[in-house]
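Final report, closing paragraph on structural work. Over the funding period we assembled a curated collection of sequence-structure pairs, and we close with a single example.
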Amino acid sequence: MTSCINHGDNNGLLASENRARRGEEKQVVGIAEVIRESYHDPTDEKGVFLAVDVKAVKPFPKPVTLAAIKSESRLKEMALAKYPRLSVQPVTAQEWKIVCGLGGVKD
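Its predicted structure, as stored:
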């Protein structure tokens, strides 16, 4: 289970977009698949926040750090570059292609 602890994350989960992130340094490390759509987070006693279940699909050959994303001019408008504290964010097809390229993922 992946849960949200703020409203920005909660709104992102409503779109059920696939994300992956782990570790101390913020970085994209691979591709994940949502295997259960959003549901109320069972750890949230007030019933405000949502969670999704995900599974790892494919690791990136090279993790893409937040610093690398912020320094890539083609990603300057990416939500991750502007709001790095949110764990769930929209990603356009073009942004995803660039991030995958930075991570060494071939089409």
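The chain has one domain: 2-102. The helical segments are 7-14, 66-71, 79-82, 93-102. We thank the funder for supporting this effort.
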